[in-house]
């Protein structure tokens, strides 16, 4: 670190470009500092550094990271500790632009695999971003020296040695329990579990934190759907389990139907203690499906739902630059099935009405020969029978679905009630006079071969992919809108998706593979070499990425307006 001090003193007062001379590796007291990337000016994205601490100094135990889910939780815990240490230290701007800022890619409510902290048998690395201080574009060397030689060692010491070990153990034990719940669901034919006492409502529509106060109604399972799951480190847990098949969530407006579905959507991720949903677990392939007017669709086989289109338009290789509500929802389902989705999550509020149901009067008025849409109600059971794909459907407007449901759960003032038997009795008493238009079978799920030119949108090889928050990817001159990809939860996932697309373009899209095969190969490589393999900073500082599911990556590719399918 003495060499770093000397360099900073030498460049103090010089132009900002002189900061490039500090790039390199320095030995500190119990750590190594790697300055991997130096920003070009104080207004550019901050410089990237890594702090490497040998295992014998950090003093972490093997059983803290011995399994994949524990490793993720341990790295998540250290990232949270580092973010808190930065907050408590009170780092402030020291000059122009981003001068003086110390940042880490801090986790939110979800526990995600991310690259901010990495742990192995030899060392742990904390990846940070630092705004190198300047006044205008004049280097403030003394302030930089304060950051590297005082602030940074203090923050790292606090993050690595200053935490309560019992808090870490509780964090690790929680993910052990979450993993046990997921394994139990898989072994016993359930798609979702919501523990008794869970708090499902959020503070607001724009907050991911739990609602607090007298308005909170803790979740309590109906007795008929309640199961008990044995867990490590604690007594068994009880709650509502939704079995495979077709499940309806019904009830009056503002009684908690969509709140329950939203919790099920987010149950594909583990959550931290105190979130209220830490014991909500959902099949990892569950996908929220909705209508998405205006999206592009590239040669998707939507014929199970839509056929005999006017003017002979092809629905087996359906293409449009501007999909309707029904065609977009059909495409979203078929794309999900193409990627191996086993659970569809659907809310009638965000669905196309004509895609969900055609009642008897409309069937009488507009004959099937004039209607290209086969409604979802006539395909949902075939989908489960032939492909073992379950559906959870929030519904308030059509009792016709009682005929096809395995379970009916009514939300009554945020309390679930099992209404399956009553719904069946109603279905028997009131004859269903509509005609089933679903035919003898669901239809084919067709994989699509991706042309390599789909990703060749760069006029300049130096042009980079970029992101704008959670829902926007800039891929060359093309903007990808992910606003309706509802299970994307962290902007670091979005950054990872953007880089994955660039990696696919450079290494995997050769014109011989289907989309699902391309993504499977990419994820195999990531599991072998780590998420950072997709980053231009691979081997140095890819510290701002979080792991997305395959489905969200596929959704981004499917919304690429230059996508081409053979």
What does this molecule look like?
Strands 1, 2, 3, 4, 6 and 7 form a six-stranded antiparallel β-sheet that branches. The chain has a six-stranded mixed β-sheet with strand order 16-19-20-13-21-22, with helices on both faces. Helix 3 packs antiparallel against helix 5 and helix 12 (491-507) packs across helix 14. Strand 11 and strand 12 (237-243) form a beta hairpin. It has 566 residues and is α+β, with helices and mostly antiparallel strands. The model has no long low-confidence stretch (mean pLDDT 94). Helices cover 31% and strands 19% of the residues. The protein is built from 14 helices and 25 strands.
Into which percent range does the helicity of residues fall? Answer: 25-40%
Q: How far is it from the N-terminal to the C-terminal residue, by CA?
A: 57 Å
Rg over CA atoms: 26 Å
Beta-strand residue fraction: 15-25%
Q: Which descriptor suits the 3D outline?
A: globular
Oligomer: single chain
């Amino acid at each position: 670190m003495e060499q770093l001090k000397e360099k900073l003193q030498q460049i103090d007062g010089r132009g900002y470009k002189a900061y490039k001379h500090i790039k390199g590796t320095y030995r500190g007291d119990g750590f190594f500092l790697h300055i991997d990337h130096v920003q070009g000016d104080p207004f550019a994205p901050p410089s990237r550094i890594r702090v490497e601490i040998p295992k014998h100094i950090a003093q972490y135990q093997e059983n803290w990271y011995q399994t994949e889910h524990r490793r993720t939780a341990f790295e998540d815990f250290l990232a949270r500790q580092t973010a808190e240490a930065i907050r408590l230290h009170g780092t402030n701007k020291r000059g122009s632009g981003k001068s003086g800022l110390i940042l880490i890619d801090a986790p939110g409510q979800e526990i995600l695999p991310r690259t901010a902290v990495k742990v192995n048998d030899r060392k742990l690395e904390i990846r940070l971003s630092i705004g190198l201080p300047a006044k205008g574009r004049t280097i403030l060397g003394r302030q930089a020296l304060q950051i590297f030689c005082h602030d940074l060692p203090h923050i790292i010491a606090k993050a690595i040695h200053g935490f309560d070990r019992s808090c870490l153990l509780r964090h690790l034990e929680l993910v052990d329990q979450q993993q046990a719940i997921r394994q139990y669901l898989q072994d016993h034919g359930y798609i979702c579990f919501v523990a008794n006492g869970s708090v499902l409502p959020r503070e607001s529509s724009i907050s991911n934190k739990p609602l607090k106060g007298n308005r909170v109604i803790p979740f309590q399972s109906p007795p008929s759907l309640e199961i008990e799951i044995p867990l490590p480190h604690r007594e068994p847990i009880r709650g509502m389990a939704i079995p495979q098949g077709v499940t309806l969530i019904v009830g009056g407006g503002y009684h908690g139907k969509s709140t329950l579905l939203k919790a099920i959507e987010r149950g594909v991720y583990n959550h931290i203690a105190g979130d209220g949903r830490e014991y909500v677990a959902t099949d990892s392939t569950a996908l929220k499906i909705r209508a998405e007017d205006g999206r592009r669709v590239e040669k998707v086989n939507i014929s199970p739902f839509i056929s005999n289109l006017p003017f002979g338009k092809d629905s087996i290789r359906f293409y449009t630059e501007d999909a309707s509500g029904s065609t977009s929802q059909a495409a979203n389902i078929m794309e999900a099935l193409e990627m191996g989705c086993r659970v569809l999550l659907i809310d009638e509020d965000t669905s196309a009405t004509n895609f969900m149901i055609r009642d008897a009067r409309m069937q009488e008025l507009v004959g099937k020969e004039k209607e290209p849409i086969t409604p979802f109600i006539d395909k949902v059971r075939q989908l489960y029978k032939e492909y073992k794909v379950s559906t959870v459907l929030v519904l308030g407007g059509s009792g016709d679905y009682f005929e096809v449901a395995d379970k009916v759960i009514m939300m009554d003032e945020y309390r679930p009630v099992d209404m399956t038997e009553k719904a069946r009795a109603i279905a028997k008493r009131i004859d269903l006079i509509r005609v089933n238009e679903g035919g003898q079978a669901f239809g084919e799920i067709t994989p699509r071969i991706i042309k390599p030119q789909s990703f060749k949108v760069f006029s300049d090889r130096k042009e980079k992919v970029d992101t704008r928050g959670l829902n926007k990817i800039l891929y060359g001159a093309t903007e990808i809108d992910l606003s309706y990809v509802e299970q994307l939860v962290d902007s670091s996932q979005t950054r990872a998706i953007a880089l994955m697309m660039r990696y696919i373009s450079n290494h995997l899209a050769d014109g011989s593979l289907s989309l699902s095969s391309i993504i499977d190969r990419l994820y195999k490589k990531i599991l072998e070499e780590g998420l950072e393999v997709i980053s231009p900073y691979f081997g140095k500082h890819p510290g701002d990425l979080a792991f997305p599911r395959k489905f969200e990556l596929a959704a981004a590719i499917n919304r690429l307006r230059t996508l081409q399918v053979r």
